[in-house]
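Incident log, structure service

09:12 report received: a user says their structure output differs between two submissions of the same chain.
09:20 pulled the input from the user's history:
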Amino acid sequence: MKLRIKGNSLRLRVSPSEIKRLLNSGRIEETICFAPEQDEKLTYALECAPCEKEIAVRYRPQELTVVLSNDGARKWAGEEQVGIYGSVDIGGSQLELAVEKDFACLDADDADNADTFPNPKSGVSC
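09:34 re-ran on a clean worker, output below:
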């Protein structure tokens, strides 16, 4: 799972095997460590839960979780839909959220494209 943070936006890109694990277990996560101390890390996660909103976010110290509705996650995983998008009110502004399928890069080699979705622009000429 890849995390991109830019300004007030957060995007997760998820591989086919990760989507399968998400649907089977209800949660996938990654952790990045910034120093040897136990509290110098950030865990970012994607969860499925029975909820009314299609996409939401939960923050706790050292953990950021994007939560998808069970129905929305299953629909997204089983269709050609690229992603689930939404925004969360954070008191005077919005946090933009995106969870997308991770497509193969057109200019990368096969090793870099392992466990990605086929790029819909593959083979398209300008």
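09:41 both user submissions now match this output. Likely a transient worker issue. Closing.
09:42 reviewer note: The first strand starts at residue 2 and ends at 6. Residues 2-101 form a domain with the Gyrase A; domain 2 fold (CATH 3.30.1360).
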